[in-house]
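Hi R.,

Here's the chain you asked about this morning:
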Amino acid sequence: RRPQPTSTTQDESAQYKPTQLVCEVPPTSPCTPRKDKPATMATEGKKNPMKDIKVDKLILNCCVGESGDRLTRAARVLEQLTGQQPVYSKARYTLRSFGIRRNEKISVHVTVRGEKALEILERGLKVKEYE
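And here is the predicted structure, written out as tokens:
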């Protein structure tokens, strides 16, 4: 604990009066820009790199629903499009209504990355444009 002063004089009590602080804020309206705000990228003329379109990978999938000749033809088409060896996907479980059994190969897919992905995407969009 702090010791309490035993005697105070009038001069000491007049010295420790709290003063009132007056804070004046300049009036600002929502329409007028504030001067203390930092300049944004739009006002500086810079481009935001997060708005750029970036293609990380392109996945091409052909689900045939059955193994056999149709699946091998789909694999050949994907190989001609991408120049890569396609991967076969198997059914997870048997569905009698679809006529597929568990672990039967029913689809093929290819994952393409980098410049090759952009090239294939451009070719596909050009074909769609001419239709």
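One quick note: Residues 115-130 form the longest helix (16 residues).

Cheers,
M.
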